[in-house]
Amino acid sequence: MHNTTIFPEKGFYYHYKHDPHGKKYNYMYEVVGIARNTEENTFTVLYRPLYESE
Fold it and tell me: Domains in the chain: how many in total?
């Protein structure tokens, strides 16, 4: 049996809390890559929030 991991592609994504009628870029993120932890064999999505924090 093979373990297949699916990663998000680089690009722009909205969080489920995004309000399409709200401020521009609210809850919008840019996925910039994937990082691998070689000691634990885990992966982390690297993202950049595009909205201003409150």
Answer: 1
Query: What residue ranges in the chain does DSSP mark as E strands?
Result: 11-14, 28-37, 42-49
Which residue pairs from 36-43 have beta carbons closer than 8 angstroms and sit at least 24 positions apart in sequence? Answer: 43/5, 43/7
Which residue's structure tokens are 């932890």? Answer: 37
State the Cα–Cα distance between residues 24 and 1, nearest whole angstrom.
45
Question: Which residues, 6 or more positions from 33, have their beta carbon under 8 angstroms from its beta carbon?
Answer: 10, 46
pLDDT in tens, the chain (54 residues): 567 888 999 999 998 888 889 888 889 999 999 999 999 999 999 999 998 776
Question: Structural domain of residue 45, as residue ranges?
Answer: 11-49
